[in-house]
């Protein structure tokens, strides 16, 4: 949704000179600025009792923002339309608008989803809750099999309907529930609104198409470019992600590129539409450490340039420490702990998070052997009855084996563990 919140110098008189406090301009990519005949106005009556210097926002403003957000939502998925203006006519509305733009870009509420395995539906992720704000990086960590990829693939509805279903919950993207939209609408969200960098670039790129074909498709998909423009864009993006001789590389097949280059191609594809949200699922797993560092640096730079939010999935606590603003720790398909990067690294509460941190190799301490959490993540069919971590937890109590703890939250730092339940009740 490029352009929302951008200011510009276009001066057009509102048909509601005294009443309008917000205006939304809509034009096609090709409309010259001086032909803004298709501007749509939205007005809201200013209540006389409202003082001009009032800075807070009440239900009235939020109702009005809802109308505008609805209008944006209805048109934003049209290929040729760009919303270019959200302008205040009254400075007193500043904080309301700023507050409104502060709403999460992505909000997952109570998401539970299952796979059909041997003719039975088995829960894979349960009661997942998190949000990502504009420009924010959320790190999702956890061991292999914890449900990180299932969570991200559920957001984009990438599993076949015959073997996967969403049991309950909402996936709100810019306020729109992605679990409720049609397949056609969803296909327009993918790539343009939310794009994904997959875990394995070798299997995610098509081996029988050239790199150029695949990258150009990302530009052609939403009908904005001609084939020639798409090729130019492909070269431009390959240059941007640091691939040397891009004119030659676009004619090559994935197997002719190194792992690091393939991953860069995937990143270029993910960025092609400059999406507001990028999901990066273990973007560096298959790479050696030097290339890993380069790719992470590249993601950081591109994020800064484009202003996208990133959902970064990784096993690597070092990577999240470097990249993430907030962190979600997953275990056995559930959220165990969530908080700012500082909360998680300076004050980890959950025994599982503490175990993950203790397992990081430290060069400042001679510990003799590397710590690891004993045991393995349970399979979907053998989830423990109570707390999902109880079989591996050194602090497990009796109730942990029969009851599942709820999420306890204080100041944005949440933990799912009975060790803290009494403190909250007290
Ligand atoms: N298509 C599928 N059908 C059945 N079960 C699946 C499917 N995909 C994943 N699972 C199961 O769902 C659980 C979560 O898997 P997921 O791929 O999300 O783990 P992950 O946290 O991404 O692990 P990794 O770090 O290894 O990528 C695992 O138990 C896995 O076996
Ligand atoms: S609820 Fe019990 S088993 Fe689960 S992490 Fe807390 S102490 Fe350990
Ligand atoms: Mg995965």
Which key terms come to mind for this protein?
4-stranded antiparallel sheet; single chain; binds iron/sulfur cluster; 22% strand; 426 residues; binds magnesium ion; alpha/beta; binds adenosine-5'-triphosphate
What does this protein structure show overall?
- The structure is a single chain.
- With 426 residues, the chain is of the alpha/beta class.
- Strands 9-10-11-6-12-13-15-14 form an eight-stranded mixed β-sheet, sandwiched between helices.
- Strand 4 and strand 5 form a beta hairpin.
- The longest helix is centred in the N-terminal third of the chain and has 18 residues.
- The protein starts with 21 loop residues before the first strand and ends with a helix.
- The N terminus is likely disordered.
- Magnesium ion (MG) binds next to helix 3.
- The site of magnesium ion has 4 residues, from helix 3.
